[in-house]
Amino acid sequence: MYRGIILLLLAEFCFASATVFAKFVTNTSDISPIEITFFRFFFGVFIAYFSLRKSNMSLIPNNKKFVISRAILNTVAVILFFMSVKYTTVTNANMLNMTYPIFIFMFMPLFGYEKIKPIRIVYLAISILGVYMVIQPNFGHLLLGDLLGLLSGIMGGLSVITLRRARQFDSTAIIIFYIMAIGTVINGALMIGLFKIPTVELSIYIAISALLGLAGQVFITSGYKHIEANKGSIISTSRIIMAAILGITIFNDKINLELILGGVLILFSIVQLTVSEYKA
């Protein structure tokens, strides 16, 4: 179990750090976040392909509908997340993206899973209060980045629900390959007309961000082989704290009482919702 904990902590550190390097790029240039996410998927498709070839696995999924749906939703979630990083703080972007477990529970009944129990409605209400405190909505100055971060969490929740269905028919390896392949195609199409040739320094930052994202995917996939899903989900919330520390120390992200309390409420809700699922 300890190996799983370490791998998941490494995964979340990689994911949080990837946003730091992406922020360096978007803060110092007019390079689009879509260009950054393109290379994340582009590098990944080659790694995933050679992994499948090495295992002599077929490239044809057993259930195309769920695998493709997972890939498209994941791509949209990643694009929204990195756009959020550009327009808001590293802390807020990661915190709002990590609300995806909350939306899993909100949307599960719509996909034929069990209905939401009364106690979970309480936790969902607490999470909504937490999100409200993080965003502090005022239509006079509502940050686009915060809205994009929340949307990335919503799309991430839908993505995980389709992943659950996809895993009933196909392996993790084939699912990851299609995520990377379809993500490359979608990002490539969106990047037409937006591509900017980066400097050597920015190219390094983009590559590091992409590779950190891939490393995080490898660590999290390996980590769940050594730890139960409920415990792993709780450990994954550590990214909120890691991102806050990185954002404050590197970018001087502003922290106030409302943001801290909102983050605590979101963390509390995710933990309680996860625990309640496995107690059921």
Brief description of this entry?
Helix content is 78%, strand content 0%. It is mainly alpha-helical and 280 residues long.
Can you offer a commentary on this structure?
The chain is an all-alpha fold and 280 residues long. It has one domain. 78% of the residues lie in helices and 0% in strands. It contains twelve helices and no strands. Helix 3 runs antiparallel to helix 4, helix 6 packs antiparallel against helix 12 and helix 10 packs antiparallel against helix 12. The two termini are 23 Å apart. The mean pLDDT is 88.
Distance between the termini: 23 Å
**From the helix content, strand content and strand pairing, which structural class follows?**
mainly alpha
Overall 3D shape: globular
| pLDDT averaged residue by residue | 88
Ranges with pLDDT <50 over ≥5 residues? Answer: none
Order of helices and strands: HHHHHHHHHHHH
- How much of the residues is beta strand, in percent? under 5%
Radius of gyration, whole Å: 18 Å
User: How many runs of DSSP E, i.e. beta strands?
Assistant: 0
How many independent structural domains? 1
Query: How many H/I helical runs?
Result: 12
Percent range of helical residues: over 70%
Major β-sheet, in short?
Answer: none
